[in-house]
Design a protein that fits this description.
The complex is a heterotrimer of chains A (282), B (364) and C (293). Chain A is mostly helical and 282 residues long. Chain A has helices at residues 7-34, 39-43, 55-64, 74-105, 111-120, 130-139, 146-154, 157-169, 172-180, 185-196, 198-213, 217-222, 231-238, 248-268, 270-281. With 364 residues, chain B is an alpha+beta fold. Chain B folds into two domains: 4-228, P-loop containing nucleotide triphosphate hydrolases (Rossmann fold, 3-Layer(aba) Sandwich); 238-348, Nucleic acid-binding proteins (OB fold (Dihydrolipoamide Acetyltransferase, E2P)), CATH 2.40.50. The chains are: A mainly alpha (282), B alpha+beta (364), C mainly alpha (293).
């Protein structure tokens, strides 16, 4: 549009956005800086705004040994987080995809009942029913296992709805053409639905990987053994209530390491991420 | 190749919606049968029942003498071309065409031979490695045809295959489909709502309305002797003019004060019987202002190039006349019209049935 | 009339649904119904038997001043975070929507905090505002502000609000930007021809057109603050000092961790479930199109 513009009104958006970017980035920058100094500098409150010389030392120690107060190497915690996030993302995609397929491509007694049973779980986030769920997991003997970390979180109405939505956009004529071409329900799934769903699956994977990696309350409750903990939970052990004992440089190193994988996923797969986010919510 | 026989086929959807109300039809071997009618008339449902995509509520469908009511679509030995082509978007053209054969465990070299042959016939050889989205509408249409012919089925089913193409391409593909069907000699059922497509393609034309067959016959026969008022107005463009009339006596009908002689009218109708008289816009003779003619004041004129359409009203009912360009002087305010007795169609005003000879009609 | 072609198969659909239904029944319905059941029962002193006590657990809970405290905290917390993160995100989205150069780069630089775990976000903010060594915390104290989130409840609440807002801005920004970009440009142009200046155009055209997005985000934000901020609170304040930042969800966790009163804890869960169901019901209007057959 032609509109008389003042140089200031041209610069204003850039100014505001730059401030916004700065405010969002500042806490992370401080954390990165914190992970490169020694305990003394931080404890004195004299840490400067630029990185120090202790990066290699801090990261090697954190990954290999962990802090004094927790004693678990962060490398192993990251592996646990990775296994949990992967299991949740893949498990969710698998079970919600086939259940959505059943609801869209078949007509059978109790179909709507099954759909509503799944749909209602939208209203029951795990935090609400945390102790009863904990008891169930304890009863079936899944405490301190990867299965216990992942399985209770993989039933997801959101993912089922997303796949259902997507399947309904596949032209019904493709089913008909497949039937005439001699493909049954499993063959149609494998030859047509699966290849067409790749982008949807990838978008969902990005969102669910982040969701799984960032879980906090659930792993906090059901892991008692230190070697089964995830990195996000592990950081709590590093923050000792008595501040003098907190090894801040290791805590910040761990925090940066915990933040890195999901943030990289978002930055590298930004398109899929945005799509996954918008589609799971809308 | 096979004969297709439908016997009293009905389709009732949940909620007692009767989409097809008892259709019987014989399609001889190698014929192209066109089902035509307005949307919602049940023509697509009927086709889909032949394909096996809809269950048959009652009646029977037989292909080549074998009843197929309970046979899966894949085992009916049919092939179908869809309106939106229904090409698998993630497969190459080659794979799209080969998919049905692969599912039937046809040997690899046989598949290749047949795909190449189909591609040659349809002139799509250069595109075999492309994905459907890289093709134009006409090319996609050809791929869909290729998928059908490669299977060498007993019956081709076409569900409005040209509706998504632009007008020019539609005419071109229409001719190609007709040629291909002739060359292969495969019995075909073709569904369309376009009466021009129906007239030009069919060996056998089936006009449907509200779940019933209104008329079956050769296209020229249906055009010349429409069995019902519905067929009369549906087939032909611009549609047939209809005027209210009353039987005056044997072979004579009074319309808007004038008495018309009709050569094709059932004998024994009582004077005073309420009828409708149908006259095609192109059947009128323009006679200037000679005596023994009806005068039609011209409201406006539409230029079609080779012909002109004159719009007016007779006895309060709209009336259209088609004449070659130049026949009527440009400044004419009205037309003098005369109509030959054998060009007048008479329909019962109440039932809409033709009161005259009809060549072949299905029991509707 | 549903004309979608389907496959005829009796057993297969049930097999396909089985995994999800099994997980849902075992880990959703079973625990949820146990919570509901327990909320009406009381354990004896040895935890051996339980007896039906009707609404007593709920009555005890509602007479408990600390429960009210948690409720007030939750309302203050979620209200502030929703207001702050929505308005800041809207400001940024409007700026990024102005067809300026580098808009996609700004988007990239603004979306990543979504991926930071709440607990990690909490650690970052604690590191900044820690009174004795945090860069900003020390600066505040140096300026004579009596800043101490470890001892002062108000400061603690402010800090968790800031951390939670920080993390939620990206999410709101993405949805606001998508909402802004879906407003037809011709509408803005028509308003310009009608003589509306940019500010007026925003409040009379753009903002009303965004209201579905805003409403949707409002509900999502409240749900976010209710549940997802557990990690932030646990990392920064652990509900303290003196329960000043204990929200309803944190209280369920805290009371349960100390053990004991199963019935009371279950009653808390049931009330939370009721709140979530109410929120979801409001949001349902927007999900409805997904479930109408």
């Amino acid at each position: 549009m032609v509109e008389r513009r003042h140089w200031f009104s041209d610069m204003l958006p850039h100014l505001i956005l730059t401030i916004g970017v700065g405010i969002l980035a500042f806490p992370v920058w401080l954390a990165v800086v914190g992970s490169t100094w020694d305990a003394g500098t931080i404890a004195n409150g004299t840490m400067p705004l630029y990185p120090g010389p202790y990066a290699v030392e801090n990261y090697t120690r954190a990954l290999g040994h962990g802090g004094r107060s927790s004693g678990e190497p962060v490398g192993m915690l990251m592996l646990n987080s990775f296994v949990m996030a992967l299991a949740i993302a893949l498990g969710k995609i698998a079970i919600s995809m086939i259940s959505a397929y059943a609801v869209v491509y078949f007509r059978f007694p109790f179909r709507m009942a099954a759909f509503w049973l799944i749909f209602i779980t939208l209203m029951l986030p795990v935090e609400v029913r945390i102790y009863p769920t904990y008891q169930v997991v304890a009863q079936v003997g899944l405490l301190d296992t990867y299965a216990g970390l992942a399985v209770p979180l993989i039933a997801s109405a959101t993912a089922t709805l997303l796949f259902r939505q997507f399947f309904m956009t596949i032209p019904p004529e493709l089913v008909e053409a497949s039937k005439i071409d001699g493909a049954g329900p499993l063959k149609f799934f494998k030859d047509t639905v699966l290849p067409l769903s790749i982008t949807t699956m990838a978008a969902l994977f990005v969102i669910q990987f982040i969701y799984g990696w960032n879980q906090y309350l659930w792993p906090l409750l059901i892991t008692t053994r230190p070697d089964m903990q995830t990195i996000v939970v592990g950081i709590k052990k590093l923050l000792v209530t008595q501040d003098a004992l907190t090894e801040w440089q290791i805590a910040m190193t761990t925090a940066v390491l915990a933040m890195l994988p999901p943030v990289l996923v978002v930055l590298v797969m930004q398109k899929l991420f945005v799509r996954g986010l918008v589609e799971t919510e809308k | 190749m096979a004969v297709v026989t439908l016997q009293n086929v009905r389709k009732v959807y949940a909620g007692d919606i009767e989409a097809v109300k008892g259709v019987s039809l014989d399609i001889p071997d190698g014929h192209l049968c066109v089902l035509v009618g307005p949307s919602g008339c049940g023509k697509s449902t009927l086709l889909r029942m032949v394909a096996g995509l809809e269950t048959i509520t009652s009646g029977s469908v037989a292909i080549g003498g074998r009843e197929v009511n309970e046979v899966e679509p894949a085992d009916r030995d049919i092939a179908m071309v869809f309106q939106n082509y229904a090409l698998y978007p993630h497969m190459s053209v080659y794979d799209n065409i080969a998919y049905g054969l692969r599912n039937r465990r046809t040997p690899k070299d046989e598949i290749d031979r047949r795909v190449q042959e189909a591609a040659r016939i349809l002139a799509i050889e250069p595109f075999l490695n492309r994905k459907p989205r890289a093709l134009s509408g006409g090319q996609r249409q050809r791929v869909a045809m290729g998928r059908a012919i490669v299977r060498k089925p007993q019956v081709f089913l076409f569900d409005e295959p040209l509706s998504n193409l632009d007008a020019k391409l539609r005419v071109q593909m229409r001719v190609e489909i007709k040629k291909l069907q002739r060359a292969l000699g495969v019995t075909s059922i073709y569904v369309t709502h376009d009466q021009v497509e129906a007239m030009t393609l069919s060996d056998k034309l089936v006009v449907m309305n509200a779940g019933r067959v209104e008329q079956v016959g050769a296209p020229s026969e249906v055009y010349r002797r429409p069995a019902t008022r519905f067929v009369a107005t549906f087939i032909g463009s611009p549609p047939m003019n209809l005027l209210d009339g009353v039987v005056e006596g044997e072979g004579r009908v009074r319309v808007d004060g004038a008495v018309l002689d009709v050569s094709d009218m059932r004998a024994g109708l009582q004077p005073g019987h309420l009828v409708e008289v149908g006259i095609r816009p192109e059947d009128l003779e323009i006679v200037g202002s000679a005596s023994n003619s009806v005068s039609l004041p011209i409201d406006f004129v539409e230029e079609l190039g080779a012909t002109q359409l004159f719009y007016g009203a007779l006895g309060g009912q709209p009336f259209v006349v088609q004449a070659g360009t130049g026949v009527v002087p440009a400044d004419a305010k009205s037309l003098g019209l005369r109509i030959a007795a054998e060009r007048i169609h008479v329909f019962d005003r109440e039932s809409g049935q033709r009161l005259g000879r009809v060549a072949e009609t299905a029991a509707a | 009339m549903d004309r979608r072609t389907v496959f005829n198969n009796r057993l297969l659909p049930y097999l396909l649904l089985a995994p999800q239904l099994a997980v849902t029944l075992v880990f959703f319905y079973w625990p949820a119904s146990q919570a509901a059941w327990m909320s009406f029962r009381l354990e004896d002193a040895f935890g051996l038997t339980t007896e039906f006590v009707g609404l007593e657990n709920f009555q005890v809970l509602l007479r408990d001043p600390s429960y009210y405290g948690a409720m007030v905290n939750t309302v203050v917390f979620s209200g502030s975070v929703a207001f702050l993160s929505l308005s800041l995100a809207l400001l940024l989205a409007v700026m990024a929507d102005k067809q300026i150069r580098g808009a996609t780069a700004y988007r990239t630089l603004l979306v990543w905090p979504y991926a930071v775990a709440p607990a990690i976000a909490g650690v970052f903010w604690l590191f900044m505002f820690q009174p004795s060594l945090g860069m900003i915390g020390r600066t505040l104290r140096g300026m004579g502000v009596d800043w101490n989130p470890l001892l002062n409840g108000g400061d603690a609440m402010l800090l968790v609000i800031l951390a939670a807002t920080w993390k939620q801005i990206s999410y709101n920004f993405l949805f606001f930007l998508a909402g802004l970009q879906s407003i037809p440009k011709s509408l803005i142009e028509a308003a310009a021809i009608d003589g509306a200046r940019p500010t007026r155009r925003f409040w009379t055209i753009v903002f009303p057109m965004l209201s579905p997005t805003t409403f949707f985000l409002l509900v999502v934000n409240i749900v976010y603050v209710f549940f997802d901020t557990f990690g932030i609170i646990d990392a920064i304040t652990r509900g303290g000092p003196a329960k000043a930042t204990e929200t309803l969800v944190y209280k369920v966790y805290n009371d349960g961790r100390l053990g004991g009163d199963l019935g009371g804890s279950a009653a808390q869960s049931v009330i939370l479930m009721a709140i979530v169901i109410a929120l979801t019901a409001i949001q349902f209007r927007y999900v409805e199109k997904k479930v109408t057959y």
